[in-house]
Amino acid sequence: MDLDSEQTAELHTLYIFTHGKGSLHINNEQYHLSADKYYMLSPGAALQIKNEANTPLRFYQITFAVIRVGNPRHETYPENIFPGRYEFAVYPFTRFIRLIEGLY
């Protein structure tokens, strides 16, 4: 992933940063990266990650599809799961990271 160029999310995506300092631009809104938070994008969201230190950024990127269960058929849900929110706090962060590592 080229951190300096703007990317567009194709699926729902979680970004979980574990090391480094920087900022995240999601749909022209700026967020300061923090190790106690995660960031969720919906399909079509614009993203740019900026490293603001001489140390590398380390993070997990998890992409997934959201399926709306319906009758008679199921369909992919492309909208934001939490409208108007991209940044979420996690506590305890170490336990969250252990769960994420279990996915990898």
Write the layout of secondary structure elements.
Elements: E1 7-8, E2 12-19, E3 22-26, E4 29-32, E5 37-41, E6 46-51, E7 58-64, E8 67-68, E9 75-76, E10 87-89, H1 93-103
Antiparallel strand pairs: 1-6, 2-5, 2-7, 3-4, 3-6, 5-10, 8-9
Structural summary, described in words:
The chain has 104 residues and is mostly beta strands. The protein is built from one helix and ten strands. Strands 1-6-3-4 form a four-stranded antiparallel β-sheet, with no helix packed on it. The two termini are 18 Å apart. The model has no long low-confidence stretch (mean pLDDT 90).
On the 0 to 100 scale, the average pLDDT is 90
**Helix fraction by DSSP (H/I, runs of at least 4):** 10-25%
**Distance between the ends:** 18 Å
Q: Structural class per helix/strand content?
A: mainly beta
